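Extended Data, panel c. Modelled sequence:
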Amino acid sequence: MIELRQVTKKYGQTSVLKNITLSVDEPGIYCLLGRNGAGKTTLLKSIAGFQNITKGIIKVDGKVIATSTLDTGVSYIENFTGHFNLPVQKLLKIASEVNPSYDYDFASEMTERFELDGKKKFKHLSLGMKTMVSTIICLASNKNVILLDEPVLGFDAIMRAEFYDMLTESFQRHPRIIIISTHIIDEIAKTIQKLIMIDRGNIRFFDTLKAVETKAFSISGLQKDVEAATRNLNIIGQDTVGGLATSYIFDTPPEQTASLDIHPLSLQEFFIQMVGHKGGEAK
């Protein structure tokens, strides 16, 4: 379980995380979405104990997390880390030696699946392969909490598809909390169970993907008809052109009529409406 209570993180006078309270208490694959600079990496690093927060408290399985915490129960590997520039095979071996619960068989299987050269040093790998090695080490750790920051960085379409399969397989072997930060939104929708959106240091949305599928809709038509149909609904965005309008809702949609076009939003469309800004202001 991850628990954040009134968590704030400042760099100088700039607040990157702002009084966040959040509980992630069930095993599952969670997607963390946010625009560049929204606070995603800062949030993950703070949960992992890679940096101290300015105010508030973070707990993982009841243990307070800070840079001084010896075993956080969290596995998080930053992309581009040097890994001491050792051969891939040696990296996997060291990881298994320092962690008794490490799933070396899983790591070896994934190394073969992605055709990683075990003798090649980390710095000689492509960007995609470096990211893959880091991700395999992280997943094989079998920690109760796995944090993956942009794990498909540098992957082509085939590698991304194989990565999502690997992620599902890892979770099935060892159910735990896995949080993934990514910009490739609609692709990961088939893999995740819950969605966390962060915007300007605040948690903007936390719910199941099913909630998005059943409550996120666009409603288009004449402006007067759209306004009448959505008057008491939760509107997350609006567009108007002349006398036509489209309202984006997160609510139970109205009944379809001849004067309205009602369509479900994709995950990416929902994300854009939830955290899009125009002229510097939140929608």
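The first helix runs from residue 40 to 48. This feature is highlighted in the accompanying rendering.
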